[in-house]
Amino acid sequence: QVQLVESGGGLVQTGGSLRLSCAASGRTFSNYRMGWFRQAPGKEREFVAAISLSGRNTYYADSVKGRFTISRDNARNTVYLQMISLKPEDTALYYCAARYTNYPTTVESDYWGQGTQVTVSS
Q1: How far apart are CA 19 and CA 17, in angstroms?
Q2: What is the pLDDT of residues 62-111, one digit of tens each?
Q3: Distance CA 97, CA 36 (A)
Q4: Spatial separation of the C-alpha atoms in residues 106 and 121, rounded to whole Å
Q5: What is residue 14's DSSP assignment?
Q6: Closest C-alpha to 22, from 115, 117, 86
Q7: Which pLDDT belongs to residue 103?
Q8: Strand 68-73, strand 10-13: pairing
Q9: What per-residue confidence (pLDDT) applies to 26?
Q10: How far apart are CA 30 and CA 52, in angstroms?
Q11: Residue 35: strand pairing partners
């Protein structure tokens, strides 16, 4: 089992920044590819970003490319999502996910956190 706990969400104005953290415990963190997802009210959960085991490879949704940066610290068992130039449409519950055999997806992830709320005011 892997437990994932997100933190760092909050209320921010348009153009502001936040850094989300996802702390993992339970199994060897460096064996899991990690991802960030988000779900806005009335919408389906969507992919935001993913990162490889070493952190060398990263992937982003087009909607956040150039504004969000995913990173990981395997020594601290933590994955981060740095968000800048936030927009009201970024408002959502943000989740981290872990997957052992491949990158996490909205339908194929081994573990999920409980989420942290990000609200961007206009």
Answers
A1: 7
A2: 999 999 999 999 999 999 999 999 999 999 999 999 999 999 998 899 99
A3: 6
A4: 26
A5: T
A6: 115
A7: 94
A8: unpaired
A9: 87
A10: 9
A11: 50, 97
Q: How far is CA 21 from the centre of its chain?
A: 8
If you compute the radius of gyration of the chain from its CA atoms, what whole number of angstroms results? Answer: 13
Structure tokens at 42: 């009335």
| pLDDT for residue 107 | 86
Measured between alpha carbons, how far is residue 96 from residues 13, 15, 20, 49, 121 in Å?
A: 23, 23, 10, 9, 23
Q: Can you say whether residue 8 is alpha, beta or left, with left for phi > 0 and alpha for psi between -120 and 50 degrees?
A: left
End-to-end Cα, the chain, rounded Å: 40
What is the percent of the chain where pLDDT is above 90? 95
Give me the percent of the chain exceeding a pLDDT of 70: 100
> What residue type is assigned to position 67 of the chain?
R
As a whole number of angstroms, the distance between CA 49 and CA 68 comes to 8
Instruction: Name the DSSP letter for residue 89.
Output: G
SS3 content of the chain, % helix, strand, coil (to 5): 5, 50, 45
